[in-house]
Amino acid sequence: AQTVTQSQPEMSVQEAETVTLSCTYDTSENNYYLFWYKQPPSRQMILVIRQEAYKQQNATENRFSVNFQKAAKSFSLKISDSQLGDTAMYFCAFAPPLVFGKGTRLSVIA
Amino acid sequence: EPEVTQTPSHQVTQMGQEVILRCVPISNHLYFYWYRQILGQKVEFLVSFYNNEISEKSEIFDDQFSVERPDGSNFTLKIRSTKLEDSAMYFCASSEEGYYGYTFGSGTRLTVV
Q1: Contact assignment for A97 to B48 by CB distance below 8 Å
Q2: A77 phi-psi bin (left φ>0, alpha ψ -120 to 50, beta other)
Q3: B44–A95: do the CB atoms touch at under 8 Å?
Q4: Measuring CA to CA, which residue among A1, A23, A98 is closest to residue B92?
Q5: What is the mean pLDDT of residues B10-32?
Q6: What pLDDT score does B100 carry?
Q7: Which residues are CB-contacts of B51 (< 8 A; sequence separation ≥ 6)?
Q8: For B71-83, what is each residue's pLDDT tens digit?
Q9: Whole-number mean pLDDT of chain B?
Q10: How far B103 CA sits from the closest chain A CA (Å)?
Q11: Which residues pair with B24 in a beta bridge?
């Protein structure tokens, strides 16, 4: 079974700084998808970014980018120019099927 | 932007009662899912549904749970006899293709007392 590991339960970053959230996963599959979801205090699950494993180019979405290392089974999320609204739980996920890590609580400090 | 709609947003029920959680997936999506998140814990897969039948389910999804797509638009999760440990946030999600773009609803907070 696929597993997703997020080794940082909590992190904090100063506003406007850059932060990187770590994620590793375990699978024997070659074709799969990886995601980062944001869960603000409202508890809604919001897709931040996704990566197809067959694509070598790292996905980017405005201030959010990933560092996808397929051989190392690593999928970290970099948030640039952090904003107060980025404060949330961040979940790394793998599919198929869609399996989540335990999450990293990110606090952006003014 | 299309969204997945879940109702109610919060439900309180007595232990042993039946509850039905409702979801309206995005209209052109073909795959439907239920997940749950116990407070402070990770999001757990319950069940996936495609072509009017369950395609996959987790060990959490026991005989107390059932899903239905009664009218072509709603997708429901029924818990027959709720237990205290069923208290959680329940998320519905849908996707157009199997594993590419999941869209989650806002969730239903179920409290069993």
Answers
A1: yes
A2: beta
A3: no
A4: A98
A5: 95
A6: 67
A7: B30
A8: 878 999 999 999 9
A9: 92
A10: 8
A11: B5
Tell me which amino acid residue B35 is. Answer: Y
Q: Are B110 and B92 in contact (CB under 8 A)?
A: no
| Cβ contact, residue pair B42, A97, below 8 Å | no
pLDDT at A17 over 90: yes
Residues of chain A found within 8 Å of residue B94, distances taken between Cβ atoms: none
When pLDDT is cut at 50, 70 and 90, the band that residue A70 belongs to is: very high
* 3-class DSSP string for chain A: CCEEECCCCEEEEECCCCEEECCEEECCCCCCEEEEEEECCCCCCEEEEEEECCCCCCCEECCEEEEEECCCCEEEEEECCCCHHHCEEEEEEEECCCEECCCEEEEEEC
* Exposed/middle/buried for residue A1 (C-beta within 10 Å: 0-12, 13-18, 19+): exposed
Please determine, for residue B2, whether its predicted confidence score (pLDDT) is greater than 80: no
